[in-house]
Write a structure and sequence with these properties.
388 residues; alpha/beta; 14 helices; 7 strands; globular; disordered N terminus; branched-chain 2-oxo acid dehydrogenase activity; oxidoreductase; magnesium ion binding
């Protein structure tokens, strides 16, 4: 079900059912395909159409490939090839739908958990994983991919997204910014500032909150008393949608409408995708200390990939040849990821001083520090070469 928040733009608001008041009981999230892989009745779709089969097949392929990447990276982390890795296993529908809703000129603002969103956006695996191995902080070209750095501080990227979107509005270009957040991030002051700033300035930005129900170990009901995160949108004066985050069809439909609404001048939208983090927070976390294995099993049964697979098979849109091709693509990516992570990185410590300021505006203090470090490195290299 949709949580409709009236906007001042009336006709430009995407199709929505009647408003839901905070006094109502917990409403089910909007979905287009149910857990059994069947399309929901039109009366329950919130006015959003089911995406075409060709689109759903593309989304299915991207989710399968992304999950294989996640499994491979998790294995590499356990082998000690990476320092840490936060898996998004089970959250593929939210991330893949978010990327699919964007145009090439739009910007994505991810968090540390959104590696598969970057992968789907076209960032190579070795560049995504550079920061997790300690080679670089953000190993990819943000301008080339229109992807901001993956942020570890919670909610800071939301303000960055609003700033970029506001600049785009002032320049009168059609760029939209979409930022990913977790449920824990919405407890941060930065998130409030971003929501308020975006609404006041009617910035072309979409906030996607992946509500995986835990801020590391803190459950959602210990973070807030409101019925849903999407309910908060009414306080800022923007539309809010409460969506089944394991239904990629619903996520894609709602996010596409929100992105195009922003592009047309309709302002920001808050979308909450109800999902679940199947794996640990990171490889250093023990989730058994704060959640029951039985709960995890329930959510494994709501797998977003299996749900869409059932629907596509029922529509005779997923032949064996297509499945085999998807498997080949996923395995090729896994092999390429393994190969790039076996190559030892050789970062140059002097890169610490690069890209801090324009080369035409050098800072004397930094130049002095760089020269000091260069001398120490040269001395160390010389000592190593003469040591018997």
């Amino acid at each position: 079900m949709t949580l409709n928040v009236e906007s001042t733009l009336g006709e430009r608001t995407p199709p929505q059912p009647a408003p839901v008041s905070a006094s109502d009981g917990a409403a089910p999230p909007l979905r287009l395909i149910d857990d059994t892989g069947h399309a929901v009745p039109a009366a329950e779709s919130g006015g959003f159409p089911l995406p075409p089969l060709a689109t759903l097949l593309r989304l299915y392929r991207q989710m399968v490939v992304a999950r294989r990447f996640e499994a491979q990276v998790t294995a590499l982390t356990r082998q000690g090839r990476l320092a840490t890795y936060p898996s998004a296993l089970g959250q593929e529908a939210c991330e893949i739908a978010a990327v699919a809703a964007l145009r090439p000129e739009d910007w994505l603002f991810p968090t540390y958990r959104d590696s598969i969103a970057l992968l789907t956006r076209g960032v190579p695996p070795q560049q995504i994983l550079a920061s997790f191995r300690g080679d670089w902080h953000s190993g990819y070209d943000q301008q080339a991919h229109r992807c901001a750095p993956q942020t570890t501080p919670l909610a800071t990227q939301a303000l960055h997204a609003v700033g970029l979107a506001t600049a785009a509005k002032l320049k009168r270009d059609s760029t939209v910014a979409l930022t990913l957040l977790g449920d824990g991030a919405t407890s941060e002051g930065d998130a409030h500032e971003a929501f308020n700033f975006a609404a006041v300035w009617q910035a072309p930005v979409v906030f996607l909150v992946q509500n995986n129900q835990f801020a590391i170990s803190v459950p959602l009901d210990k973070q807030m008393h409101c019925r849903t995160i999407a309910d908060k949108a009414i306080g800022y004066g923007m539309p809010g949608y409460y969506v089944d985050g394991n239904d990629v069809a619903a996520m894609f439909a709602v996010l596409t409408a929100a992105v195009e609404r922003a592009r047309s001048g309709g302002g920001p939208t808050l979308v909450e995708g109800l999902t679940y983090r199947i794996e640990a927070h990171t490889n250093s976390d023990d989730p058994s200390r704060y959640r029951a294995a039985a709960d995890v099993d329930v959510w494994r049964g709501r797998d977003p990939i299996e749900r869409l697979k059932k629907y596509l098979v029922g529509q005779e849109a997923l032949p064996d040849a297509e499945r085999a091709d998807i498997t080949r693509e996923a395995e090729a990516l896994a092999a390429a990821t393994r190969e790039c992570m076996t190559r030892q990185a050789t970062p140059d410590p002097l890169e610490l001083f690069d890209h801090l300021y324009s080369p035409t505006s050098p800072r004397p203090a930094l130049a002095e520090q760089r020269a000091f470090l260069a001398a120490e490195l040269a001395a160390a290299a010389n000592d190593a070469s003469v040591t018997p």
